[in-house]
Amino acid sequence: MKVLGILGSPRVGGNSDLLLDQALAGASDAGAEVEKIKLVQKKISGCLDCAKCNEAGVCAIKDDMQAIYPKVLEADAIIHSVPTYFWAMTAQMKAYLDRWCAFFDAQWKWHKHVYPKMKGKKIGLITVCGDPNVHTADPIVHSFKTTTEFTKLKWIGAVMASASARGDIAGNEKAKKEAYDLGKKAAEK
Ligand SMILES: Cc1cc2nc3c(=O)[nH]c(=O)nc-3n(C[C@H](O)[C@H](O)[C@H](O)COP(=O)(O)O)c2cc1C
């Protein structure tokens, strides 16, 4: 069982990073092999809609996403963790997510070589926002949940938390427990 964590915050050691670590600890304690990718340390362009991937399922943009595609395919579960920037996900996370385009054909069906790997993959999400109302991050949940459901992946839930300064979330035991439990759920067979 492999659980991949994708960090969409540019603030390494920040709130979504800390919660992602909790989730990966939960997955690891449940016996999963875990890996974390910090998108801010990668060079990832947005999708160019060049449609070159429609035929072969290979993205034409030669950047760091090329090394991430196989990790996405091989993972049994992926937990994305991202702060809210202007009522939306960060640019780093959006560029990564848009590049999933290469997995689909022109009819938005999984490419044949991709389908067996993606089928049944579990997708989870962690959001952090400065607003005390965690539902400020609802548009991010909508984006990931709808993508998951549209593509027939398995949605395992979202942990939504509030924090502003770097590391403030460390004092939020409820959010840390929820993130840990999300990781455990990701690691379940
Ligand atoms: C550019 C920018 C935009 C932000 N926009 C919002 C927002 O729309 N709503 C909100 O509640 N918090 C917003 N925040 C606050 C962050 O979501 C908050 O500080 C969060 O804890 C950062 O998480 P991190 O430590 O994982 O980077 C914004 C922060 C930045 C830097």
What does this structure look like?
This protein is α/β, with parallel strands linked by helices and 189 residues long. The protein has one domain (2-187): Flavodoxin domain (Rossmann fold), CATH 3.40.50.360. 37% of the residues lie in helices and 19% in strands. Strands 2-1-3-4-5 form a 5-stranded parallel beta sheet, sandwiched between helices. Helix 1 links the parallel strand 1 (2-7) and strand 2. Helix 1 packs across helix 7 (173-187). It is globular and about 50 Å long. The model has no long low-confidence stretch (mean pLDDT 97). The protein binds flavin mononucleotide. Flavin mononucleotide (FMN) binds at residues 9, 11, 14-17, 83-87, 128-131, 136, 163-164, 166.
Radius of gyration over all CA atoms, rounded: 16 Å
Distance between the termini: 8 Å
Number of domains: 1
Could you state the CATH homologous superfamily?
A: Flavodoxin domain
CATH architecture call: 3-Layer(aba) Sandwich
Beta-strand percent range:
15-25%
Low-pLDDT regions: none
Indicate the CATH class: Alpha Beta
CATH level-3 fold name: Rossmann fold
Could you say which structural class the secondary elements and strand pairing correspond to?
A: alpha/beta
Biggest β-sheet: count, sense, barrel? 5 strands, parallel
The proportion of residues forming helix, as a percent range, comes to 25-40%
Strand order of the largest sheet: 2-1-3-4-5
